[in-house]
Amino acid sequence: MSGVIRGYIRAVDAVNFRVGRVMMYGIFVLMGILLWSSISKTFFLPSLWTLEMAQFVMVAYYILGGPYSIQLGSNVRMDLLYGEWSTRKKAWFDLMTVCFLIFYLCVLLYGAVSSTAYSLGYWGTEPFSFFGGLVTGSEEVGRMERSSTAWRPYLWPIKATMILGMFLMLLQCISELLKDVLRLKGEAI
Predict the structure, then answer these.
(1) Does residue 182 contact residue 104 with C-beta atoms inside 8 Å?
(2) Where do the Tripartite ATP-independent periplasmic transporters DctQ component domain residues begin and end (predicted)?
(3) Residue-level pLDDT at 22
(4) CA dihedral defined by 122, 123, 129, 135, rounded to 10 degrees?
(5) Model confidence over 56-76: pLDDT tens digits?
């Protein structure tokens, strides 16, 4: 069983490491969009798409970079007491708090799936069955949701990015939970 746990940890950590390293460069994409926005407003007609696209890039940047941040332990933590604790006490505390985080991420993931289904024109109450129906061909994409701005982009791509990011975060949190279990057992990770 320990081999399966270690394999899961290695696989999830590797995926989130690679996604996080790619998303690190998203800040340069964001800077480029905002630079173009400033240039176009100063010298040309203002571009309609720049500010909303910058928001979309920022959402992708922090949602897809979040699991990498958790993996590196670079998330914000109250170190007043935590820093002085033993490794075992830290593992117990992390084990309890990551369970709350996993529950919260499950709720967010359900909301993201529902919101994405809505953006694809689904008006029902079973978003997971809608996506299953899309795969099997029993459901069709309806009238897609668009932004209310002048640019009017479709919203499903950023909502699908949110699903991916929350799913990767959930997998990373399960990986951290398993690491804490291994620490409590006294095994090396």
Answers:
(1) no
(2) 30-181
(3) 96
(4) -10
(5) 999 999 999 999 999 998 877
8 A C-beta contact, residue 105 and residue 174: no
At a CB cut-off of 8 Å and minimum separation 6, what does 57 contact? 26, 29, 30, 33
Could you tell me if residue 77 is left (phi over 0), alpha (psi between -120 and 50 degrees) or otherwise beta? beta
Please give the Cα distance from 62 to 83 (Å, whole number): 26
Give the model confidence (pLDDT) of 106-128 as tens digits.
Answer: 999 999 999 999 999 888 888 88
Q: What is the pTM of this model?
A: 0.89
d(CA 167, CA 170): 5
* pLDDT category of residue 139 using cuts at 50, 70 and 90: confident
Cβ atoms of residues 87 and 183 within 8 Å: yes
Residue closest to 184 by CA, chosen among 58, 91, 82, 90? 91
Closest by CA position to 175, among listed 183, 159, 56: 183
Distance (Å, rounded) from C-alpha 158 to C-alpha 55? 10
